[in-house]
Structures are given as structure tokens and as C-alpha cells.
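Repro case for the chain-ordering regression, as requested:
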Amino acid sequence: MESSRFSRTLAAGAAIVAAVSLAACGGTGGSAGVDDKVIEFWDPYPQYAEGSDWHEWVVDCAPEGYTIKRQGMPQNDVLNSLTTAVKADNAPDVAVLDNPFMPTAVDSGLVTDLATAGVDVDGFDENIEGPGIVDGVQYGLAFGSNALGLYYNPEVLDSAGVDPASITDWDSLNAAIGKVVDSGAKGITFSGITGEEGVFQFLPWFWGAGGDLSEPESQAAEDAQALVSGWIRNGWAPKSATTDNQSASWDLMLTGEYGFAENGSWQAAAAREHGFGMIPIPAKDGGVAPVATGGEFATLPYHKTANAEKTEAAASVITCLTSGENLARTNETIGYLAATKTARETQVRENGLWAPWVESVEGARGRTTDVGLEYETISATLSENLQAALNS
Amino acid sequence: MTSATASAPTHADARRRSRRIRPTTWAALGFAAPLIIYIVVFYVAPLAQNMSMSLHRFTRRTFVTGDAPFAGLDVYGEVLADPTFWNTLRQTLIFVVLSIVCQYSIGLALAVFFNQNFRLSGVLRGAFLVPWLLPPMISGTTWQWMMDADNGIINRIIGVFGIDPVWWLQADHSLWAVIIANIWLGIPFNLVILYSGLQNISTDLYEAAALDGCNAWQRFWRITFPLLRPVTMITLLLGFVYTLKTVDIIWIMTQGSGSSQTLATWAYAMAFGKGHSSTIRYSEASVVGTILMVIALAFAFVYLWAQRRDEEGR
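-- result from build under test --
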């Protein structure tokens, strides 16, 4: 008798513990997104921790009565986490998405119309905002853009007798790299890594050869592949370019052994420290090749249970980061060039770094602007063919 | 639980065939409940979800809206008809078999060596555990550096012997590169388990064998190896499962590009939109995930069968 009573008590106790612990799990999961006065802000800049300029700048944009909870995470994770969060209806109030993700985010219904929510989207440059506009509706606002350029190390070029001004097309570029390598230095670093990052670096050569995204397997693609894979085959570029991402290829440039590096405007400050110069990427037959707009879009994610007041507050956070004088400051904090001419002029006036980049940013093209959701397939084709060429 | 508390435990024997659940059964269920709930929530539910995703056609949109159309076994058919699948399966098998064979034989050799208990053997054995303790992020990156085609230390070393530098991480060679790194990574695991197995073999046997005039080679093949059989089987099973699902070391070294793509890295790339294409393919990834589980399960059954045969034979 006693033992059976004891076991019943134990069993009931165990069941209660199990039920309570399960309820506790459910409780924390559900309550995360429910605080009406906390604006959740996701961005792909995990390198800016609490206390950094960017973090403080964002948090200071909280409207009266609200606080901003900012969370930085790797580029791909923002989109994937947003996908599951929208499904579970605990999406953040503002999400900053990399620009090639915009079509899929719109197609999946992850993000909402900014103008309806009250974000001021007028007066921004069309080429930069293109990826955020789908079927005439603006779902994301890019505060600025970065761009790719061709950095050079003047010391290496001097001792090889190369004048960077002589580089105007692919032939003169190849001649210059050849001279640098003949002088005993190393040629050029770039990122040919599998996936979007490698494609981003490949596009200026593809477009510079007259390529069109609607035909990713055209002659232009082959010409561009031949150019960059030729560098590796000649020993002008490191073989690790096939697996290097952009920061790894920049690290190689920082050794001081290389003459050139294809890299982004986000390295402009570091480049100045090391005394590197920059020229725009040349097109095949002369002139400046179009580069792809780089950078992110601020979006308002979809919530099944809408809260108009909170959406308005979230919209005002985006407006705060992108309007008036703040726009230049936002871009300066993150190292981008602003998406309006006035703010860009302020940046160029106040920071000597930017003058050589303006032309590239103004001539840059959105990757998804014309082809939309198709870009995912196009980019995959470009990436596969590029990898095959680089590895041959 | 309330009904269990209410039912009085009278004439339990007489009620054996009664429909009412006996209090002791309730108690047993109560004890089992935490485990059952745990298994259902953390094992059965994700597995069922995985199966369900492989039977529906998911895109990012239908994942969010929840109205992915039922596709039956269509996605399985598509994956199996894809030449990439068979090529990836072949690479996976090469990766797994070569990794395990080398890890096991090197691990066993080291275990036998350290079983001599010479001076400093403890310290040296500890040193061999380092690969196990390092985060894969660090060991993967280090291998990537060492295998760098232009500046890697491996190419410099083989250059001393007059061998031409190898482009380790190039598409055609990358499978061999990740196998080498993975063998290094798996040796400590094999060493530790096999070493503890060796400790359980009585030294009397070796003494008797020595008296009978067995040499070291015979002692190994006649005593050590047969007596280590149960430990060997579990080591190989665990090694198989670990190696089959390896993503980290491969991903860090090559992003699964070229010949280093295995079923696990392929599934990872499709599920999260990594690799060449940023399009997420939940359904295809679930199909590959399910196939991986079936392969692992099949191997586990082989293990159980071998173990049972072993016990019956005794």
C-alpha cells in the first residue's frame, strides 16, 4: 500500500514537473515579440557591438516612449531568421536586408509597403533603390551603397614602372599586372568564392564586357571568366582566390606584396592608412565598368497581428536614420555612400575618402532591379561557371 | 493523474483483466512520461516535420504561408534522377570509407603503442587529443591555410622533397584535402575508445601467449584484435555516423565546392541557400536529410545484427 501510494505521488510529481517545464518553454517563446514599447531591429552588422557608433546611432533613433533592441547577425541569417520569424508571427519591427534578397523577401510576403506605413521614400537615387522596388511598390529603403574599385599599392607599381593612370581597359590592365609580376611582386587579389559574394566581384567584369543578366552564359560571361581565370593560370592572382571571401583577399593585399586588389569602398579607410590608391574598374574596351550596388535595405517586416501604432513607430525609426542631415551621418557611421546626391556631397566635403568613389556609386546597377526573383537562378549559373573556370 | 489518485488499489489481482488501467500502470506511465514527452518533442516531431517537408513542395513563400502543395514522392524522384545526387553519393562514400579506415587503423596503432605505458605516454596521449579539443572553425581554417596552393606550409614541405606543389583546394582535389583533414580530426576519438578497450584485455593472456612463444605480431592478431571486436564495432558505427553527417570541416575549408561536396554539405547548402545558389530548397534538402538518416539507420542495423551474431556465437 505504502509503496504504491508513494509511486503515485512520484508519478504525479513527475508529470507536473514535465508540464510546468513545457509551459515555461512555451511562455518565454511567446512573450519575446509582444512587448509593445520595444522596437526590435535586426541588421547584418554583427561586427558593431553594443557601445559601437552604429549601435548607439540606431538606438538613439527610438521615438518618444519606445526603446530599440538591436541585434546584429550574419548576412544570410537575417533573411532565414526573418522567414521563420514571420511564419511564427514574432518578426522584428525593422529588418535590414542585403539588397539581392529583396525580391525573395517580397515574394514570400516577409516585408511590407514602406510608403503606406509612413516612411518618406522620396528623393532617393533610382539606381540604388531599384532592388527594393517591386511592381512599383517600395518595400525597402537603401540608405546608401558601397561599390567595388581597383585598389593599387603605389610602392609596388612605382618599382615596376606602372602608372595607374595608364589603365583604361582590360588590355592595359593586363599589361600593368604583367609588369608588376615581372618586377618580382605579386599581381592582383580578388574574391572568387562560391556564391553571391564571388558573383558580386565578378559582375563588373561581366558587365564591362557588355554582359546582360538575362543571358548569364553569353560571350561576355566567357570573356570575363577568361580574364579572371587567366590571372590565376598565369600565377598573377593567388589560387586561393577560388575560396577567398572579400576580407580574406583584402588580407592578402595588406601584406604589401600585391600590386592590385579588387575590393569594396568599405575598405577605403583601411586603404588610406596603408597608402593604397584606387581607380574605377575598367571595362573591356575602355571606360568605367558598371559595378553592382552593394549594401542593405531597411524594411518593415510583416506581422499577422498588426499593431498600427507600433508599425508607425518602426517607420519613424527608418525615417530617422534616412532623413535630412541624419542620412549622411548614417552612411558615414557604416562606411557607405548615401543614396541621395545632397547627402553624398556632404560626405565628400567632410571626408576626403569618398571623392574617387562617387562616379562608381552613381553608375552602379542593382542586381535584381530588372530580373527580379530570377536573379537567384542567374547568380547561381554565374557562380557555377565562374568556379569551373577558376578551378580549371 | 487525478483519476490515478482517485482509484483505490484494492484487489489488484482480481482486476488483472479489467479494462481499468491499474494504478501501477499509471505510475509506470508517470515515470516514463518525462522521457516520452522529451522524445516526442525533440526527436519524433522534428523527424515527422522533416518527412513532411520532403513530401511537400516548399519554397520560401509556401514555407511562410504554410500552403505548400503535397507532392508525394515526386521530390524524391527528382533528387534521385539528378546526376548530382549520384555523384555526391559517390563522393560521400569515398569520404566516409577512407576517413574511417584511416582513422581507425591509425587510432588503433597509436592505442597499441600507448598501451605499453612507457614514460611520458600519458602526456603524449594527451597531446594527441588536441584535434578533438579544437573548435572545428579553428582547425578547418588552419588546414585551409596549410593547404594554400601558393604559400601553404604543406606545399613547402613537399617542395623540399622535390615534389611539385599541389593545388589542394582545387575542385578536383578538394575531396582528398578534406579527407586528410577529417582523418586528422577523427584519430583522437578512435584512439581514446580503442585505448580504453585495450585496458580491458587481461595482461595474463599476453603473458600466456609469450610463454607459448607468440611474437608481437601474433599477439596482436590472435589476442588484441579479436578481443577488441566489440569496441571496434561501436567505434566504427559511431565513426560512420559522425563522418556521414560532417559539415563543419568541409564547409570551412571549401564550402563544399568541387569534389568535396557530400550529401550533408549539399543538404545544408540547399536548406539555407548557401553555396552557389541562394535559393532555398527545403524539400530537396529534407529528401537528402531523410536519405542520410536511412543510410545511418541501415548501418546501425548492420551493427546490431553483427553484435547479436557475436553474442550467439559465444
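Ordering looks correct now. The two ends of chain B are 46 Å apart (CA to CA).
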